[in-house]
Design goal:
binds tryptophan, elongated, mainly alpha, two-stranded parallel ribbon
């Protein structure tokens, strides 16, 4: 097996829109930490345009346009192209070949049990033209992504756990049939409960563009303010400041759970030492939603302002962004091609690797 004992990261995003706060706390923030920890030998971040096409076949422009949005989001949150390889999936043909082999190791029954795919099918409907086979099989292509990089660690949001489970099954089956070849990957999800699944500003379980309940990393300060003040769901029973308030399901507090620390209180709301004290006051009554929202906006701005500034810099230099993607993709091609060669050798389909099969075939014909 190649790359033994190396610590390798692969993670990816579908370029179907700009990345939002849910992506940030669920995964991006962690990636930057891991990148800067110095603990990993190799870090790869992929723009999964092929996966995005599995349910956008009729709208390739959307994918094309959002590749630049996602790269800018990466660069602005602190993904450093000198430390992390940023690459584009569709330009890694080894992934397509691996997918084709792995498809033979998975039953359609197993695929239809994947809870994430099930939920996504329910969400999208696919009523008119039926479920695209490519979409149904995308967990297999995701296993190809992960194994092609020999990833040991895959930092993802909680919703991706079933994908990792399926990838691990494919790895185990491949290694059982063809011998130890593929590296068994491990998912890494956020420790903080609220960071795993940040709700939309309206309290709906998922941030989604069509629901208009997102805060994007690229939003202006004004847009952030509008989402919080105009749309953020609090406690409908908390009508007057003096009324006792509820924390459960109150999105302002969910977001504070995800983002606020004690230092924020020192800077912006020194009446409380920490979030527990603030919550206690809210529940007792006497703390208004306006104050809570204002604090949250300060906390978020402290995080978002530097991201916005960094993005503005890169936006002026798309030439360099292009080169970052191109360089990263070339490096990724080398890595993934090497894995494909190893896989084909394990599978005994490496006919043209050298001319040694001539001897084999000749011996076979002689013994006939
Ligand atoms: N399915 C992932 C998502 O929707 C994106 C993805 C594609 C991915 N390939 C991957 C994530 C490989 C981790 C590893 O967010």
């Amino acid at each position: 097996m190649a790359n033994e004992n190396k610590k390798i990261i692969l993670t990816a995003d579908r370029p179907t829109g700009k990345l939002h706060l849910g992506h940030y706390v669920g995964s991006l923030m962690r990636r930057v930490e891991l990148q800067n920890s110095g603990e990993f030998d190799d870090i790869n971040i992929m723009i999964a345009d092929d996966q995005a096409l599995t349910d956008n076949a009729d709208n390739p422009e959307k994918i094309r346009d959002n590749i630049i949005n996602v790269v800018l989001d990466y660069l602005s949150v602190g993904i450093d192209p000198n430390k992390s390889t940023i690459c584009v999936q569709s330009k890694l043909p080894a992934l397509h070949a691996l997918t084709f082999y792995y498809l033979n190791l998975v039953s359609t029954a197993r695929l239809s049990r994947n809870p994430t795919v099930k939920a996504e099918i329910a969400l999208r409907g696919f009523a008119d033209e039926g479920l695209p086979a490519g979409f149904f099989c995308y967990p297999v292509s995701q296993a190809a992504d992960i194994t092609a990089f020999d990833a040991t660690v895959v930092p993802v949001g909680e919703d991706q756990l079933p994908m990792l489970e399926q990838a691990r099954e494919i790895v185990e089956k491949f290694n059982r049939i063809y011998g130890e070849t593929l590296v068994l990957p491990q998912a890494l999800i956020p420790e903080n409960e609220t960071q795993r699944r940040l709700p939309g500003v309206d309290g709906k379980a998922k941030m989604s563009k069509s629901l208009g309940n997102c805060i994007y990393l690229s939003d202006s300060a004004k847009q952030v303010k509008q989402q919080v003040n105009g749309k953020m769901f609090t406690d409908p029973q908390h009508l007057r400041v003096e009324d006792p308030g509820h924390i459960e399901g109150n999105v302002v507090f969910t977001y504070l759970d995800a983002f606020a620390n004690d230092d924020h209180f020192k800077r912006y709301l020194p009446e409380y030492a920490n979030l527990d004290e603030m919550k206690a006051h809210y529940m007792r009554g006497g703390l208004g939603d306006g104050t809570c929202k204002k604090f949250l906006i300060n906390v978020m701005e402290e995080m978002l302002a530097p991201i916005r500034e960094e993005r503005a810099k890169w936006e002026k230099d798309i030439d360099s962004v292009y080169d970052i993607l191109l360089d990263g993709t070339k490096r990724a091609q080398e890595k993934t091609n090497a894995t494909l060669a190893r896989v084909q050798t394990a599978m005994r389909i490496d006919y043209f690797k050298d001319r040694s099969i001539i001897k084999e075939w000749e011996a076979l014909l002689k013994n006939k």
